[in-house]
Amino acid sequence: MMVNVSYEFVVDAMLGDLAKWLRILGKSTFYDPQAEDEKLLLVAKLNGAVLLTRDRGLYFKAVSQGVEALYLGELELDETLIKLNKTYGLRLEVDLFDTRCPLCNGRLIRKNREDVEEKVPAEVVSRYNVFLVCENCGHVYWPGSHLRRMREFLSRLKQRF
User: Fold this and answer.
1) What is the pLDDT of residues 21-34, one digit of tens each?
2) Which domain holds residue 128?
3) Final residue of a domain: which of 88, 118, 148?
4) Residue 4 has what pLDDT?
5) Span 67-104, pLDDT tens digits
6) If you ran DSSP here, which 8-state letter would residue 14 be given?
């Protein structure tokens, strides 16, 4: 069942990695790599969302239609996250109580190992006590080495300002 969603950001096809990071950082983010410019503009308008783009033409079109937009040009992911922190107060921390599925944008709900033991390998169930399950697509996450690397990356970003 698809839950009604209100988006904070709309991200163009060239910014898939950014969309995943925004979701992980708790921001409801529309990302569809097949979406045409008109759909991106419509979703941004309907949600009062910020359009993030590397497409100069799309940026100017958005601004001319009264859509808040940020042109990111060729900024790398780290520079983009810092810019979003400074411009929109994006929290540069992974909060397991406020995060979204990087795949589909669904909310992640905390579950115990008993709730997921049929969905993940036995060695994972035995090593972790906390799991996050997407309310939309059902994907299961746990706080393993990937989370540690994400937190280290964000920590390095915060040291730059």
Assistant:
1) 999 999 999 999 99
2) 108-158
3) 88
4) 64
5) 999 999 999 999 999 999 999 999 999 999 999 999 99
6) G
Residue 34 lies in a domain: yes
Average pLDDT over the chain reads 95
CA neighbor of 136 nearest in space, from 159, 92, 103: 103
Residue type, position 31, single letter: Y
Whether residue 151 contacts residue 94, with contact meaning beta carbons closer than 8 Å, is answered with yes
Query: If you write DSSP's letter for every residue of 1-40 in order, what string do you get?
Result: -PPP---SEEE-GGGHHHHHHHHHTT--EEE-TT--HHHH
For residue 156, what are its two tokens?
């390095």
In this structure, the chain runs to a length of: 161
Residues 78 and 138 occupy one common structural domain: no
Q: Let me know if residue 17 belongs to a domain.
A: yes
Query: Closest Cα partner for 7 from 39, 151, 121, 146?
Result: 39
Domain end, chosen from 59, 88, 117, is at 88
Q: Which two three-digit tokens encode residue 24?
A: 């992980």
By C-alpha distance, which of 47, 92, 87, 45 is closest to 70? Answer: 87
Domain count, the chain: 2
Q: Specify if 98 maps to a domain.
A: no
128 contacts: CB under 8 Å, gap ≥ 6? 113, 142, 143, 144
- In angstroms, rounded to a whole number, what is the distance separating the alpha carbons of residues 55 and 73? 7
9-11 and 140-141 beta bridge pairing? unpaired
